[in-house]
Structure formats: C-alpha cells, structure tokens
C-alpha cells in the first residue's frame, strides 16, 4: 500500500509541477541549534557477522563538519530466549570511529529478545547516563521466488521486483529489503525497500510487485536534482536482495527517514516531525533485529 | 402579489417576474419588504432587488435608463451601521471583477481573501482561513448547497465562474441562523437570477480559459441561465513535437444551469445545477476531481407576513487517480456525498420583529478510498454514514430606534450510522477492538446546540457600536495535514472516537460612515475559543489508513485579533484598505509535547490595499498590494547522521516563521465601446500578477550538497511576475 501511495503522489506531483511555473533555488535560513543529543543506531541480524552499533552525537543542522563520533561509551548487548541469555560487550576496532562491534561473529536468532545498553557521560556532567533499547527478532520472511520483470508505465520503463509468498493472514506484517546491484550495496536507509501486507489478508501472492527501479535509459527524463537521489537499473544487472520481516516500529522509522530527509512538501507532506526512535533517555536513532532471507535475480533484457 | 413599496418611480411587473415599463411609472411588486429607496446623485442605472420569502435575493432587475434620484436596493446604504451582524462582507460580481487576478481569471475566493480577517492558506490557494480557523471550518455554499472543495488546478483558481456570480457574502462567525455546522465562517455564493426580459450573455477569452454565460426568459413565467467555462492548456499540448505530450490532457471545466418558474402569484419553483471537474491525463497517470451539485426549491408565500422555502440539495465531491502498468490499470476512487432536505420559514411579526425558523435533515456518505487493479485484490476502506437533523429558530428585533438585536439557536442531532466497522482505541491510541454495525444501524448520537446573538446600538445616523456572540459546532472535518490545496481531501465525521469541534466567538466593533455613507470604516475585535480541534500525531498516515482515528489528537485552540477596514464605495476612486492584527494557537496533548504552538495559519499582521480608478470613459485601472507576516514553520534545530545520510531533528513545532509575504498586482481595463445603449460591449483587461517579482517562499526543502555532502536549504517559489490579457464581453 505504501507503494500505491508513492505512485499516486508521484502522479500528482508530476502533474502539479507541469501545471505551475515554480522555481527552486538555494537559500539561507537561520535556525536555532538545539542541545546535542546522542544518536545510536544498530541492527542485529541472523547473519554470522560481527554485529555493529554506531554511537554519535547530533549536531547543528547546517554544520560543515561530520557529526562527532562517541568513543567513550560502554556498549553491551544482551540476547535472551526466555530460557537462556548471553551478554556481549561491543568495542571499537578503531578508537574514535564510534562503531562498536561484537568481538566475534554472532548470529541473532528469530524469536529471541535483544537489549542494547549504551553507558556514557554524554553531557559531561561527571556522571554516566544509560541509553537503552529493546527488540525482538521476527521470524524470517519465507519468499518462494523472486524475479525482476520489465514493464512500461507511461513513458517510463521500470524494473519491477516481484515476489511469490504466502501471506500470514490476519497479522499485519512489515517487510524491508536491502539490496545490491552488480555487487554495490545500497546501505542508506532512505534507499531501503519497505512494504507491508495490510491489503493481502492471508492470500498467497504470486509475483507481487513490491518495488520498482527506473531504467537508466530514462535518466535524462529527470532533473539532475531528482536523478542524483534515484537508483537506476539496466538490462542484465544482477541483484541481491536481503528480505526481512521487520517490526512495525522499524518500518515506520524507514519510511520516516525517507520522507523527512528533505523536509516537508506543503502539498503532499505532513508537517515536519521528528523521526521516531526506540532509544530511551532522550537519545535518537534506532535499534532493531531482523532475520535475513537473501534472494538474487537478473534484470531482463 | 404584494405591493409593498411604491416609489416616485413606479415599476410594474406582470404576473411573471418579468418587468414591463409603463410610461415612466413603475410599480415595485415584491413578495417581501426588504427594498430600500435611496436618493442618489443622477444615475443611469436602477437596481431592483426582490428579496424572496427566505431572505434570498431572488430577482434582480437592472435597467439602464435615464432615470434619476432613486436607487432601489435590497440593502440599506448604511447597512453596515444598522445591521446587527458583525464580520459580514458582501462583494458583488462587479466588485470582484475589479480585483486584479492571476492569469486574468477573476475569482470570487481570491477577492474574499482580501477582506480583513481572511487569509489564503498558501500562495495562490483557493483555501482560506477566517479568524484563525482551518480551511475546512468554512461552510461554502453555492445557491444554498454545500461545495466541499472550491478549487481548480490544485487551488490556483476557484470553482466559481464570476460571469455567473451575482454576489458572494462572507460571515466571519455570526452566520444566519439557518446555517451552521462550521466553526469559522459561511461563504454564501449566489449565482445570477436576473430574470431578464430578453436573452443576455456575458463571457470572456483568457489565457487560461474561456467562458460564456447566457440567460433569458422562456415565456412569461420562466427564466433560465446556463454558464460554462473550460481551460485549454491542453490544446497547446497538441502542438508539441513530442508524441507523448500530444496525448496529454490538462483542463478544468465548470457548468452551471438554473431554471426557475413562477407557478402562481404565490409559488415559485426552480432547479440549480453545477458540475465542475479537473482532469489531468498524462502517459504516467491520470487524476480527476470535482464537485457535482444539484438543488431544487419551492418558494411559497402564505401571506405578506409568512414565506417558506422547501429545498432538496445534493452535493458530491470526488476524486480519482489512475496509473497504467503494462498489463493493467490501477484506479483509486474517493468521494463524499450528502443529500439534504430543508424547510425554511421567514415570518414577519411586525415592523420590529422578524422570525426565521425551520428544519434540515442531511444524509452524509463518506467513501475514503477504494483501489482496484486487475489481477490484484481490491483495497476498500470502510465507508461511513451519518444523519444530521437540525431545527432552528431565530429573530431579528428592533428594540428601539437605537437598539436592534438578533438572537437564535440551533439544535442538531448528529447520528453515526452503519454499515461500517468502528475501531475502538485504548489510552495509547492503539486499537483495542472493533465493532461491525449493520446497514442503517444508528450506533452513536451527538446532540449539540448552536447559539447566535448580536446587538447594535446606533450612536447616530452614521455610527454604531455592535457586539456579537456565537457558539458553533462542527461535525465533519477534513483530514489533511498539508498546508496547500491537495485535491486528495478526506472528510470524516465525528464519531465515538472523535468529538464534534466547538467554538465560542465574542466580538465587538465600532462602525462609522462618512460622506453620506460613501466611505465606510470599522474596527472589530474578536476572541474565539475552540474545543476539540484536531491535529495529527507526528508522522501520521492520512491516506489509506483504516485506523485514522488513532492518528488524530484533539485539544483546544484560541484566536484573537483586531480588524480595521476603510472602504470607499463610490466615485471614480473606489477600493479599501484593511489591516488585521491576529493570533491563533493550539494546545493539544500529544502534539508539541502538550505545549501551546502557533497554528499553521497564524499571521500577526496583514495589510490589504485595493484601489480602482476610472481614468476615463474608456480606461479603468486597479491595483492591489498584499502584505502579511510569514506563516509559522518548523525548521530543524539539529541533525543526526546514519549510514552517511543526514536526518533533521526538531525541538518544537512552529517556532520559526517564513519570510513576510507581499506582492502587488495591477490591471488596466480598456472599454473600446463603452456606451449603455450599445447592444454589445467588450473590454480588454491587461494585468500583471506579482508585478515586482517578489519571491514569496512556498516551500523550504533540504538536500545534501553534492559538493561537500552537508545539508543545504532550498526555497521554492511559485510565481514570478505573470502578465495576462483577457477579453470580456456582454450583450
């Protein structure tokens, strides 16, 4: 359904832009800078890797330097099945990077609970504060098949990602996909594929189109400004998608990152709002866990 | 037929509403007493307006003859002094025509936006805010029937074709007692019903659209009017070298029709129709939206004291989207409809007491969305239904020569009705259950009163003080958290989860006319307190959300301000200057951490200046200048960085403001053959919108600079200086 809204908003936006003589130019606005807060972001997956958490500080919106990474944090991860639990200490490979990783590769387990704790003296008052978040790893998404088809929508050629799978019925499920095209991974959250099954009602879906990419041949039809934020595909491209079942909260987080990144549009966007977080104690960011089902396909001629 | 006024000039009508000239003597035959004879300087025009049984101006007869001394109108020249209501502004079609317009499209709503206390929702928008209220808190009527979305072309033009408009009257709170159901205002637009003795026409050819209005008699008892307008930007697309562009359509149209028939001396029936739609068809997708309105009425005169109007009104606003995929086509449809029956009485007890009473009943149908696509499951959101029953009673009373009052009350029962699925929510706004109600099952009722009271104390012939109180209730509202005129309006009713909105407005004012009422001045102060006003939680999902109620937060709001108006009505120079000082805010739990925040339409200072000057018999010039404080805006106060992307952090809502808005529009009208006896008259209108090309910010967005990767701000403005030329004609 998210895709439908996205398409319809695009239809209106295109027509709206064609209707009016608007002009966009760089400008300077004076904004107040709020007190800095910690930003904690990390995901735990069922892949056998060193799981990572990033700890940094917020900054002024227009600051011309990279956000400060926090290097003096104590980061721990506790996994709990309800029967057994285990505590992991995460450390930085490179002090100052703000990237805290488990010492050894570990696999998250679907159904298990994960609790993150970050302890640090962020506000430099001489005493530590603790920032926590908790999540449960949903079971993996079982995708029976994945393929890419080519279709025409108006004057545009799209590569459509299609899946066949059994929907879970009355339960609302939320999904994401991280992908690589020709070996290049797209890790920015605003590029993630996110969709849900709200309209499926437990049916078996065959070749359900869940996402589209524009053909690189159509790149010239977009402004440079728009094109720089888009991902294009070509015939023969090979794609790997890591599909995951995610929580509704993380699904919202992904969509909010995509919609709030560039501010709000008075015609179609809602008012500006903070991206939701599940980190406690006033920090921002997100912590979640998900199981990955990796699929690959080739873009058709 | 009643002879209610006989003047020095006598105008006789036959049994029809059509006039007959009789050797310089006229008898004013009227079914109601609101006709006023006023001495004026010699004029060549007399307006006779027959106010019908329900208080509507049903017959306007305009003559262009060499008659002198007397002008008969429906309204006293000093009405702004004597009327008990405050915050009422009336604009006639000819006054609206003097306002320079975007691309030459004369527009009722754009003219209304120049009035004190009224502001456009955004640049170029047909939405408007009245005294701090939301755009959905305005009741917009076209010939007594509700218009849910009065915009064309994403709000740049309104649905009202000015050639067919007789008048537009705005009530900023104390609306006539027969109307209610909105917190902020009533915009009452009436189409022409001149009942001319021969076929007349008016029209125009502009850059955006062309229009034609014809009206005339059909026998002695029947009169008719048809009016049409269509834009033609798409016709230019046919000339494109790009074959895809040649397939595109981009237009809007309006069609109005009226017919009225006098059955007898005491009975008149009529039918009004409006159909208007925007249609955009491209190779990528289509969108269409518009209103369909139909109403039928029967006016009956029981006696010279008692009149009634029975009417049946239907209105529908709908939009549809479609997008084509290789093997199928997806369609999205949404609409709101209502069917209303109403009976209004107007009862003159004495010269000092007039009563209005009546009842209405309305059947509301809400269809939020239905999406279909071949080969995929349909997505149908739950429809909802409601009944709204109202009885009302009001009075206008002259207590003495100096003091007059109006007072009244409405009592409304708003009843939610099945078939629908009603979700229930816990204290965290999470769904705690749902109940399915069968077809026609009434499952919830709100009973709410509305009150109106007004008092005028005439200090002397040229000045008065007034005080008004209103308590209004609103049962349906729009779910739209954008600032501008998106056509994807989603109206939803009060329900067990959403209480009706309520507002109390108190206003006082001083009114003073100068130079035999040629110059009107006023200063008004108002305070409006609102309960159960709505806003949406952060990152709310408005469209295609079955559980929209869970994203809504309700609380309190207040507005207060001062409006100053100086208006010159006659002479070669006419126009007005007005200034509004205003404040409006909201306090809603769950929004802005429960702290009070400025409403998105808060504009501290607004100045509107409109002047029209008759340079010569052939040339008129007009200019307007608009200034307002920038609207509140929420800018990021920090940023977070995740995986190489920056995302904004906000610390409060509406804490900054956009740059002030201002622009000047000018127009010049050339009448090559301005002579009243000429059967055909044309005029050229040359205009420039935003003449000094002020870049008024419409949207501020953010992006990561391609060079250094850090966030930067971008400002979008809609219009530079836009010249236009229009040819208007009438015969």
Notable features of this structure?
heterodimer, A: 301 residues, mainly beta, Immunoglobulin-like, eight-stranded mixed β-sheet, five-stranded antiparallel β-sheet, 42% strand, globular, B: 731 residues, Maltoporin, Chain A, 22-stranded antiparallel beta barrel, five-stranded mixed β-sheet, 51 strands, 3% helix, disordered N terminus
What is the gist of this entry?
The complex is a heterodimer of chains A (301) and B (731). Chain A has 301 residues and is mainly β.
Quote the average pLDDT of chain A: 88
**Alpha carbon gyration radius of chain A:** 21 Å
> CATH homologous superfamily name of the largest domain in chain B?
TonB-dependent receptor, beta-barrel domain
Strand content of chain B: over 45%
> What structural category arises from helix and sheet content of chain B?
mainly beta
Task: Name the average pLDDT of chain B.
Answer: 86
Tell me which CATH architecture of the largest domain in chain B applies here: Beta Barrel
Strands of chain B, total number = 51
Largest sheet of chain A: 8 strands, mixed
**What is the oligomeric state here?**
heterodimer
Order of helices and strands of chain A: HEEEEEEEEEEEEEEHEEHEE
Strand order of the largest sheet of chain A: 8-7-4-5-6-3-2-17
Uncertain parts of chain B: 1-35, 37-45, 51-55, 62-69
Portion of residues in helices of chain B?
Answer: under 10%
Biggest interface between chains: A-B, 82 and 86 residues
Uncertain segments of chain A are none
Please give the number of β-strands of chain A: 18
Our estimate of the beta-strand percent of chain A is 35-45%
N-to-C span of chain B: 31 Å
